[in-house]
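fwd from M.: "can u put these together and see what the complex looks like"

so here's what she sent:
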Amino acid sequence: MAPPRPYWKGYLKLSLVTCPVSMMPATSESEKVRFHTLNRKTNNRVVSRYVDAETGKVVDEEDEAKGYERGENDFLVIEDEELQSVALESARTIDIEKFVPRNTIEWVWLEKPHYLSPSDEVGHEAFSVIRDAMEAEKVVGISRLVIGRRERAVMLEPCGKGIVVWTLRYGDEVRKPENYFDDIGDGDNDPKLMSLVTSLIEERSKPWNPDMVQDPVQEKLKEIIESKRKSAKKGAKPKGKGKDEEPAYTGNVIDLMSALKKSLETKSGGKSK
Amino acid sequence: MAVAGRAQWKGYIRFGEVTTPVALYTATSTSERISFHTVNRETGNRVRREFVDSVTGKPVEKEGQVKGYELDNDRYVVLEPEEVAAAVPESDKTLRVQAFIGCDDIDKVYFDRPYYLTPDKMGTDAFALLREGMRKKKVAAIAQTVLFRRMRTVLVRTHDKGLIATTLNFDYEVRSAKEAFKEIPEIKIKGEMLDLAKHIIGTKKGTFSADEFDDRYEAALADLVKAKMEGKALPKRAPPKVSKSSDLLEALRQSAGIKATEQPRRRAGKAAPKGRAQASR
């Protein structure tokens, strides 16, 4: 993946310590198998362009501007530089207001991760002080940041030589779990079942490995492309699909006991047939 | 569960030889943000997007557009939507647990979207068993299934009486942290500077509550728009003062409330180390 251009530039601040930083998203929209849009008739690439909605004329890229709708079809053009002067310090400074113990923020609040690095040699040491002190105290920092035309709470967590900045969801963006979970029973806490299930978990526990997030579909697409390339005429006809079958589920406690025992008997390796 | 709304997905979770019916509910919603329109600077009119053939320049209708994979310069393999769809394995509506992972061992940077996972129909016993077993062993489960016509990997973790299934991004969708941070020099901060910074952190410890944060951007932008319409000059703010290495110790001392002339308070028994950072290795 090509290194992205910095997505946000600004300052990281702890009390009177300030350093220049830049940030980029930790995730990308890039696909492993990258498609282009073609014109079916000509096989040429299809490109998008903007035309003026009134005159129908093509608009040059440098004439594209952000418009704030102040009335119906009445737009005030705002330049990106002007947006910089919005009167919120969080538009350009991540000022760490608070620290909370690591791993105390529920995962459900984490929205999107970004990588934060010092952007100028002058701030290398200040950046390192903030990072290392958080690491030593086993805390993460909480601040505010204007990103994507919103001001969000963010969480800063040391990660190797850098810092990961997570945007956090607003309070009303996470549905109340009680509404979903309150009716769930405690279940039958049969100690025998419990010991079977914990044995099963132990047996199938593995260290985290990025191989766990490989995409079988992209591999398959590559195969399809390869076979089409080889036989451009024949084309690769997809195989007919089988019927979606509903599996039988494990109902009562007796079923559970025997299913768990069977699980432990079958050779582990994580993959069930 | 009248308030819970409709399930996004219904199926089964399978761990070992145990299969039990479950449902997934969206845990999050996205609040609205300010949107700008793209306008033509010359005329002030809105613009619309048009798709044209890159060679002929003629517009191409939606039906005339097809996905192509570039083999080499300008040679493409065309893939019809059905062919792309056929690459997705058939759905057996089952979240297959492939492994359990220690909760502290998980790389959060892969997280995509959380869903509430609940038992469906009569599946409470097996559900509760899995939940309590995972809670006891402090693990989460990695499972795969076809979700919303895509093959997805999810991470399932206990949450109160329920489970939360978080979809994970694929390996190629996540940039490597090591790669992203490789330009950062190896500096390890020790001694007085680290102590001062730790002291400052100590004065700012608290807890996180999402409800304390609201979006002040819309109001601030409205002010900016108003100022511009009234023809006022928009404020140019001077950049903040950056803490150079030579000023850093002083900035830390002041932040910690220690006067320049005063010696920093040190814990007994420790020799006063040099304030400068030392590069490790």
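replying to her w this: Chain A touches chain B through 191 residues (CB under 8 Å).
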